[in-house]
Amino acid sequence: MNKKLVASGLVAFALLGSVAFAKEASANSTIYRLYNTNNQAHLWTSSTNEAQSLPGIDWNWNYEGRAWVAPSKGTNIYRVYNPKSGEHIYTESTNEVDVLSKNGWRSEGVAFHSADKWGKPVYRLFNAKAGIGAHFVTLSSYERDQLVKSGWKYEGIAWRALGNFNWTKAQYNALKEGSYTGAGGTSYSSIVSQHGNPQETSTTEYGNITYLAVSYNNSDDLIDQTYRSVTLLFVKQANGAYNLVDKSITNVK
Questions:
Q1: Number of domains observed in the structure of the chain
Q2: Where does the record locate the signal sequence feature (predicted)?
Q3: Residue 81's Cα: distance from chain center in Å?
């Protein structure tokens, strides 16, 4: 039996299980964006109920779609509400939450989480002339640049979203597939050090061999609807490390 072919065939099986598990256990959150045409305020929420119900409660609210995908855990991003103006502010600073709370704002708790340093940057901008909508965040560098040209002040990266697909074709081609035992294959640890942790992982036992299947995926956002992924299969070594035995890539528009 060609064990490498068996290993290749297990990629789909292993990842199928990991996708179902990821949705159940990790529960990454889609963040939705809404805009109020009356006061120019934007709202970002992980609640599908809030995103769907607000336009029905107040016709001034317009649903603008998915903004980004947030991880199930990571740095807390808090939402603070001003009951007098109706404005919301999002921040990872507990000190800012405390200061605002002492000045009439109301903390609404953790809104979502920030991804790690490999995540897509979410940019923050400010425009004092925009009234309630003075604070704004976006995943789109194009939208950021257009707002800056219109007089907004760019304040840097606010936090990070999931889905930073930082693979190049050259990096993918450089990955070395080892024998069916993993001997000579690129190590999993070296890939993580360069690309961060994958979005999906799953381990599968086949006889006395342990396989690790992982996938790096590019998530949707408001501007770029491209989906890309790198799927890799590793075999556990005697020392506990994992070496690459199979790889595949998808690039679909």
A1: 2
A2: 1-22
A3: 25
Same domain, 113 and 212: no
How many Å from the N-terminal Cα to the C-terminal Cα in the chain?
37
Q: pLDDT by residue (tens digit) across 19-33? A: 322 233 346 788 999
pLDDT average, residue stretch 169-182: 91
> Same domain for 196 and 245?
yes
Q: Is the pLDDT of residue 201 over 90?
A: no
Apex CA 34: angle with CA 28 and CA 35, to 5°? 155
Same domain, 196 and 91: no
Task: Tell me which residue range forms the domain holding 52.
Answer: 29-161
- Which residues fall within 8 angstroms of residue 56, CB to CB, at 6 or more apart? none
Sign, Cα dihedral of 181, 183, 189, 193: negative
- Strand 227-236 vs strand 242-252: parallel, antiparallel, or unpaired? antiparallel
Strand partners of residue 114: 75
Q: Are 38 and 138 in the same domain?
A: yes
Are the CB atoms for 231 and 150 separated by under 8 Å?
no
Q: Which residues have CB under 8 Å from 198's CB, separation 6+?
A: 192, 214, 215, 216, 232
pLDDT at 228: 64
> Residue 221, Cβ neighbours under 10 Å: how many?
21
Do 152 and 176 fall into the same domain?
A: no
Same domain, 157 and 117: yes
pTM of the model: 0.59
